[in-house]
Amino acid sequence: MAYLLNQTQRNSLANVLRMFEESLHQAEAWLEGAEEGQIIYHRKLYLGEEKRRKARQKIAQALAEISAMAERFELNMQQENASSLVYSQFIHLRADLIDTTSDKLRRFGTVDARLTEVLDPAIKRLFDIAMEIASAFNE
Question: Is 69 exposed, middle or buried (0-12, 13-18, 19+ CB in 10 A)?
């Protein structure tokens, strides 16, 4: 049935199904007890056993449907090097870091003059570290 789609349509379908599959696997990890964070955030799934069971069933159902669609429309697995994902995340974080300097925080109200001396150097250090991390993952 791949003939029902042109190449651009197949690519679009594959991209959406790939993102859906990623989300399903992330949800599975949460259901299995995955936790994240250590310093200023912590994520853990708090969900009753009945809802977990139902979610697992629906995830399995969705994965089976994606598998069938991949076969039906001849959507091949895309091998991806995670380094490009890490690289892009840290490149985007640079902009977010810049948006938290004392000058940019003025959009949320008056900024204490002392903040420039305390916050901005730390943000600059994190910005530089983000650049070094991005460079390490850039191919």
Answer: middle
